[in-house]
Design brief:
alpha/beta; globular; 13 helices; 17% strand; 46% helix; 326 residues; TIM Barrel; eight-stranded parallel β-barrel; two-stranded antiparallel ribbon
Length: 326
C-alpha cells in the first residue's frame, strides 16, 4: 500500500460544528484518515478558534463511518492528566468503532501554561511523557486496577470500565533521538511534522519496522495564487520557526513577534500555494521518500475547506493515487 492521504481538522481555524462538517466532507471525498490538533490556544490571534478537540472528535466519530481519526497531538503531561487521557481515548475508540489512534507528544507552552503549573525544561518533559505513556498503556490494557507511583505522577487504583476490544493504538511525536527511542519502545505509530529520513530510520532500527509513520504538511489551496500566499502568511507565518521555538513560546503575542520578519515570499517558498497539484505531489514525495506511510495535509484557512475538498475530489486524489499508489 502506498502513502495514505489524510485530512487535518485544524481546531485553531474553525469552530466545532464546522470541523465536524468538514471531516464528514473529507470522508465523502475519499480521504483515508483525519487528524485533529488538540490546543487551548491558536498560534496567532488571526486564526481565531480553539474548541475542545475531544468533544469535537466525539461528534466526528458519530458523524462518520469509515475515515480513521487521530489526535495530532495530545499532550498528556500537564493540562491533561494521563489517566484522564486514557479514559478519553477508550471512550472515543468505542464511539469510533475502532477507527481511533491516540497521538501523543510533549506539548507546547502555549497550551499547557493555562493551568498555572509552569513549563518544565525539555528533558523533564520527555521524562514526564515517558511516565504518562506507561500509565495510559497500562490503563488501556485493562488488567485489573492500576496503581502507579512515579517521579511525576501517581495513580491510585485506576480502572477503565468501558474498554474497546483491540485497545487503542498509540502514536508518539518525535523530533530527535531521545523522542525516537521513546517512540520505538512505547508507540505503535511514529508522528513527525518534517520529512526527515533519519527519524524514520532510527525508529525502524530501534524496533519500529512495519509500524505506521504519520507526517503532516500544510498547503494553501486557491485558484488565486496571490490570495493563497497572503492567507498562508497571515495564518501560518509561524510554521517555519521550528519545534524548539514553538514549544516554548507562551502566547499568541510571542508567536506574532517571533514571526514578524517572515515575508510572504518566505511562506510561498516553504509550502505549496495555489492550485498546482504537481507542486503538492512534489512536496509530499519528500515524506514518501523519507519512509512515511501516511501524510495529513493541512489546508490553511477555515473558510477555505469546501473548495479545497472539491479540488481534492476532482484533482488531488487522482494525482495522489497515481503518484503514491494508495
Amino acid at each position: 500500500m502506498g502513502m495514505q492521504l489524510g485530512y487535518t481538522m485544524m481546531t485553531e481555524q474553525a469552530g466545532p460544528k464546522d470541523l465536524v462538517r468538514h471531516v464528514v466532507g473529507a470522508e465523502d471525498v475519499g480521504f483515508d484518515f483525519a487528524v485533529s490538533s488538540d490546543h487551548f490556544f491558536p498560534w496567532l490571534d488571526e486564526m481565531g478558534h480553539s474548541p475542545n478537540a475531544w468533544v469535537t472528535l466525539g461528534a466526528a466519530a458519530h458523524a462518520t463511518s469509515r475515515i480513521d481519526l487521530m489526535t495530532y497531538v495530545t499532550c498528556p503531561i500537564i493540562r491533561y492528566r494521563p489517566a484522564v487521557v486514557a479514559q478519553q481515548a477508550a471512550t472515543l475508540q468505542l464511539l469510533a468503532d475502532g477507527r481511533f489512534t491516540l497521538g501523543l507528544g510533549a506539548g507546547e507552552n502555549l497550551n499547557e501554561h493555562v493551568i498555572g503549573e509552569g513549563w518544565p525544561p525539555v528533558a523533564v518533559r520527555h521524562e514526564m511523557l515517558a511516565e504518562a505513556v506507561q500509565i495510559i498503556k497500562e490503563l488501556l490494557r485493562g488488567d485489573g486496577y492500576t496503581t502507579f507511583h512515579g517521579e511525576y505522577y501517581d495513580v491510585d487504583g485506576g480502572k477503565l470500565w468501558d474498554l474497546p476490544e483491540g485497545g487503542v493504538p498509540i502514536g508518539l511525536a518525535v523530533s530527535g533521538e531521545k523522542s525516537v527511542e521513546l517512540a520505538a519502545e512505547y508507540a505503535d505509530v511514529l508522528i513527525a511534522t518534517e520529512p526527515k529520513p533519519e527519524l524514520v530510520g532510527q525508529f525502524e532500527a530501534a524496533g519500529g519496522a512495519g509500524k505506521r509513520k504519520v507526517g503532516q504538511m500544510p498547503i494553501s489551496y486557491g485558484t488565486d495564487k496571490a490570495a493563497a500566499v497572503t492567507r498562508a502568511h497571515q495564518l501560518f507565518r509561524w510554521f517555519g520557526l521550528g519545534w524548539k521555538v514553538n514549544a516554548d513560546l507562551p502566547g499568541t503575542a510571542g508567536f506574532d513577534a517571533a514571526s514578524q520578519f517572515v515575508r510572504e515570499e518566505d511562506v510561498e517558498s516553504s509550502l505549496p500555494c495555489g492550485d498546482d497539484v504537481a507542486a503538492v505531489i512534489e512536496a509530499a514525495k519528500e515524506y514518501a521518500d523519507a519512509g512515511f506511510t501516511h501524510l495529513a495535509l493541512v489546508q490553511i484557512g477555515g473558510d477555505q475547506q469546501e473548495p479545497y475538498l472539491e479540488w481534492t475530489r476532482s484533482t488531488l486524489l487522482p494525482a495522489w493515487r497515481e503518484a503514491f499508489g494508495s
